[in-house]
Amino acid sequence: MVVVVVHMSMATLTLQTMTKIGRNAACPCGSGKKYKKCCLDTGLSEDGMAGDEHGSAGERMTLVLKTERGTILREIPAAMPLRLITTQGKAAEDATHSAAALWGLPDFVFRPELMALGSGVRELGDGLIILSGLGLVLQVKSREEPGADAERERRWLLKQGRRALRQARGTIRSLDSAPRTLTNMRDRSAEITGEGRDWLSVVILDHASPPHGVSMPASELADAVLLTRRDWEFLFDQLKSTHAVAAYLKRVGGESVELGTEPVRYHQLAALDAQGGPRGLDPAIKELGAAEHWEPMLPLDPVGSIDEPAHSFFRSVLEDIASIELQTTTEEVRLRALAELDRLPTEHRAHVGNYLREAFNLVSRPGWDEAMFRLKRILGGLGTTQLLFGAGAHFPDDKFGEVFSSWTELRHHEFIARLGDRGDQAISVGVLLTPRDDKRVWDTTMTAIFGPIKITAERLAILKDAWGDEKSAMLEVLGSGEPSRLK
After folding, report:
1. For 29-149, where are the alpha helices, taking DSSP H only?
2. Are 367 and 408 in contact (CB under 8 A)?
3. Each residue of 346-370: pLDDT tens digit?
4. Is 391 helix (H, G, I), strand (E, B) or coil?
5. Considering the entire predicted model, what is its pTM?
6. For residue 133, what is the DSSP state?
7. For residue 227, which of 258, 250, 248, 251 has the smallest C-alpha distance?
8. What is the DSSP string of 152-216?
9. For the chain, what percent of residues have pLDDT higher than 70?
10. Cα–Cα dist 65/187, whole Å
């Protein structure tokens, strides 16, 4: 195990790996207590510190975070054990996919596919993560039977890292050349287009005990990032959102840090984000009198550690959307809609989870038999996406889908008008919960509209009469600070 002391107020990444700490020595967390009376009692082992040339990435790490809130201990578990059903390399790929599917959404994780070449076939990466405008090409290299020679292990890691980067960039060129039909971890196929997508090469080096000091020059990491498998799992466990992890990796892509220190870099950036603030609202949106909510892009606490029920409720809604039997739309549209929902900042996922749960309980109350809606929409402060959430009950002829879609249609039309020149980029994704009488408790309806739509003057008048003007709609606006980077 490795103990790392991180001074969060500093703008540079600081890595202090503690070697052996005696039971009567001062605790590294800065409490002033003896180690045996402080952090040792929380599970740190006095003889488990790294004291040789091999180090951190395959082991458990403890971060001692010096923050304005005081000293925080953060445990970073070792990577999950591999299931050696076939080869170790294949097991490491499977573990990489499983982590992204478990803490993110399996819909965004696509298995590697074989591509025909003139001389044979080639695999398209070791997996892909595809979001609306961003794609990650994964390359996984696993070290079998590492030796005790630290310099030899360094050479292996750098050689395999460079090889993986070449392979990932070749995959990106292939994906840019023509659309491919790929299969995700829900065993659903979708056509993936590379053109116009923002790509990032992600190399994951799986090593039981990598030596310290392994890093690749930033000049070799353009649009790429190197991680250990433990650090890949840390990011997904910390953020529990595929979009949040992908956005973080895109943010740090091209920057060189020591392999195995991603949790340190993450917490440094989280501390910088916490010092930021909102960038302001689009004036056209501000006219509506919307309340602005700001939160740091990177949370210091693991997502779900504070309001787990609300986060779980929101995740269950996403799972419902992923399981809807499609009738009038395509898998590509579902993936775009899920990607927009997954972009919700972490604290607001809990906020929406609580809102949906409370709204659903309200419309489901016993003894009430009139049609009822509780609706809210959320806008990204300077973005072109709006998300619409609600619960409803007691619709005539059970036409709740049509009724909810008409509200989404009206708000999308109004949103386009407010965006002006950016109206052709407008996206509206709506989610509605309606009660059921069986064990499933509720049904989930999803509607999505991308870009311009045509509404006749007659229909627009009917919709406005039914739903009221734009200012009467319940509205919230999300602000996000400009992402900070380590200097």
Report:
1. 88-103
2. no
3. 888 999 999 999 989 888 887 777 7
4. strand
5. 0.86
6. S
7. 258
8. HHHHHHHHHHHHHHHHHHHHHHHHHHS-EEEEBTTS-EEEE--TT-EEEEEEEEE-SSPBTT---
9. 82
10. 41
Residue 125's Cβ-count burial label (10 Å; 0-12, 13-18, 19+) is buried
Which amino acid, 244? A
Instruction: Report DSSP letters for 340-369, one per residue.
Output: HHHTS-HHHHHHHHHHHHHHHHHHT-TT--
CA 347/CA 349 separation, integer angstroms: 5
**How remote is the C-alpha of 107 from its chain's centroid?**
13
196 Cα distance to chain centroid: 21
**Rounded to an integer, what distance in angstroms lies between the CA atom of residue 428 and that of residue 412?**
6
pLDDT in tens, 73-91: 888 999 999 987 789 999 9
Structure token digits, residue 273? 């984000």
56: which 2 tokens? 């951190």
Close Cβ partners of 365 (under 8 Å, ≥ 6 residues apart): none
Q: Which amino acid, 483?
A: P
Q: Which value, to the nearest 10 degrees, does the dihedral of the CA atoms of residues 458, 463, 465, 471 take?
A: -130
